[in-house]
Amino acid sequence: MEIISSKDNKKVKEARKLLTKKYRKNSYLIEGFHLLEEALKAGHSIKQIFVEENKLAKLTAMIGSEKSLTDLSVNLVSKDVLKSLADSESPQGLIAEVAIIEEVIDFSASKFLLLENVQDPGNVGTMIRTADAAGFSAVILLGETADLYSPKVMRSMQGSNFHLAIARMNEEECFAALKQAKISILTTTLSANSVSYKTVEESSFALVMGNEGAGVSDFAVESADKLVHIDMPGQAESLNVAVAAGILMFSL
Q1: Which of 243, 176, 241, 169 is nearest to 210 (CA)?
Q2: pLDDT, tens digit, for every residue of 69-102?
Q3: What is the set of domains in the chain, with CATH numbers?
């Protein structure tokens, strides 16, 4: 198998575009063996793989006999070429291009996490990973929430996007669907009308987490069945949104 050593190789240049949001229409990049293994287990379509020569044996051992290197369109690349495709400072020797699957949210499920205008990719990925760990059914991205397929979100999720349904929806349509399905909307806010999460008992609910600085929108507040908050006996004014989401998801 010939090694691609030029960053100007056509395949490499086309794949590198996927590091930029506007080009991620049909596919996106993931880094490392763990994420590739999770994608394969979940049956996602792998369009191609770029791997350093010294990592080829590891890749071959990982995929076993179920798929061949030809089936997965494996490209051997130099270390410099691999690094040009990576977003992290220390890439793990493998980059894969994965086809985007349009998820359909099943509103007959019971636990939903709604991220409204959450802009930090690390927060978005961490909350999705936590929702996966806490047994949530789906995550819905609203408004200006960070792109699910950005490399930083991918690293923070650690493969959880392959375990549960995640979709971006129009906010009005999302809340209307939740209400039609009789799912309680729990909007997080520190307003005077909110109640401690410890008093909330809901069998099915959608937890709304808002923007890091501005919090949730007026629309999310108006649409809520309950406004909830976390009691803070200390002197900090607020919690990081991902930390707050973790407390609420496991407690509720």
Answers
A1: 241
A2: 667 899 999 999 999 999 988 888 999 999 999 9
A3: 3-99 (3.30.1330.30), 111-251 (3.40.1280.10)
